Amino acid sequence: MKKLVIAFALAAAMQSQAMSAETPLERGTYLMKSIVACGNCHTPQTPTGPAAGMELAGQFLVDEPGFFKAFAPNITQDKETGIGNWTDEQIIAAIREGKRPDGTIIGPPMPIELYRNMSDTDVKAIVAYLRQVKPIKNVVEKSTYEIPLPPSYGPPVTQVPDVPRDDIVAYGAYLAGPAGHCIECHSPLVNGKPDIEHQLGVGGMSFPGPWGVSISANITPHEDGIAHYNDADLEKVIRTGVRPDGSRLLPPMGVYYYANISDEDMAALIAYLRQLEPKPSPE
Ligand code: HEC
Ligand code: HEC
C-alpha cells in the first residue's frame, strides 16, 4: 500500500513537472489544434475541412434571420485586415471580455460568456499561438445584429486561475465550457441565446450550411443522448465523427480538431458528460 502511494506521488510530481515544462506556445498550439479550436469559426471551411493556407483568415459564419448575420473576422497577424496591430492585452480583452481596442463589443456566436472563465495560462498561450500564425490579407464583411448587443459582458476579467487537473470532473467542465464551448452548441437557442442555464447539453441547436441542416445532439446521459455509448464509442464519435453504426457527424461539430484532444483531456470530458443531469431532447 505504502509503495503504491509513493508511486502515485511520484507519477503526480512527474506529471506536474511535464506540465510546467510546457511553453506557452506549446500549450497554445495544443489548445488551438484540439479542444479550443478557434479555427472552427475563424478559418474558412471547405467540404473536406479547413481551407489550406487560410488559417484564421475569417469567413461568413451564420445567418439567424431576425437575430444576426455573423462573420468571423480575420484574426491573423495581418496589420491591415487582421489583428496584427493589437497588443497582447487587447487580444485577451477581445477573447475574455468581447471588447475590441476601439471599445466596440463583439457579438454572438463568439462564446464570450464562457471565454470569460478561460484561465490566464490558457488565454496567454492562445495569444502566443496567434502571434506566429501567418499574416493573411483578407477582408471579411462586417456582421449585422438585429438584437441589441450588451454594453459589456460584465466587469473586467482580471485573474482566472487554472482548474486543477486532478479534479477530473471539474477539469472536464472547464474543457467543455470555458475552453471548448461544447455546451454552447449543445444547448437549444431561446431568444437567440443558448439556454445553458436550464437546458444544458440537451442539444437541438440547428446549423444550416452547404451540408443541409445539422442539429446538435443531446450529450447528457439520457437515452436520447449518450446513455447508449460506452466510453470507447463516445471517444470515437467525438474524435472521428463516426458513430458505431458507421454514420458520420456533420459540421460544425469540430471533429477535425477534436481528433487531437489528449487522452487525459478526453477522459476528463467524458467524466464530465457522464455526470450531467440526464434530460430528454427538446420536442
Ligand atoms: C462560434 C464561433 C466562434 C468561435 C469559436 C470563436 N470566435 Fe472569435 N469571433 C466570432 C465572431 C462571429 C466574431 C465577430 C462578431 C462581431 O462581428 O461582432 C468574432 C470576433 C473575434 C475577434 C474580434 C476581431 C475583430 O477584428 O473584430 C477576435 C480577436 C476573436 N474573435 C478571436 C477569437 C479567438 C482567439 C477564439 C478562440 C479562443 C475565437 N475567436 C473563437 C466567432 C467565433
Ligand atoms: C460549433 C458547434 C459544436 C461544438 C463546439 C461542439 N459540437 Fe458536438 N455536435 C454538433 C452538431 C451539430 C452535432 C450533430 C451532428 C450530426 O448530427 O451530424 C454534434 C454531435 C455531437 C455528438 C454525437 C452524438 C451522436 O451520436 O449523435 C457528440 C458526442 C458531441 N457532439 C460532443 C461534443 C463535445 C464533447 C464537444 C466539445 C469538445 C462538442 N460536441 C462541441 C455541434 C457542436
UniProtKB/TrEMBL annotation:
Q: Which keywords does this Swiss-Prot/TrEMBL entry list?
A: Heme, Iron, Metal-binding, Signal
- Provide the transmembrane region boundaries: none
The record's section on SUPFAM superfamilies has: Cytochrome c
GO molecular function terms attached to this record: electron transfer activity; heme binding; metal ion binding
**PROSITE patterns in alphabetical order:** CYTC
Instruction: List residues of the Cytochrome c domain.
Output: 23-134, 167-277
Question: What is one Pfam family matched by this protein?
Answer: Cytochrom_C
**Residues annotated as signal peptide:** 1-18
InterPro entries the record matches: Cyt_c-like_dom (IPR009056), Cyt_c-like_dom_sf (IPR036909), Cytochrome_c-type_DH (IPR051459)
Alphabetical list of PANTHER family matching this protein: ALCOHOL DEHYDROGENASE CYTOCHROME C SUBUNIT, BLL4482 PROTEIN-RELATED
Q: What is this protein called?
A: C-type cytochrome
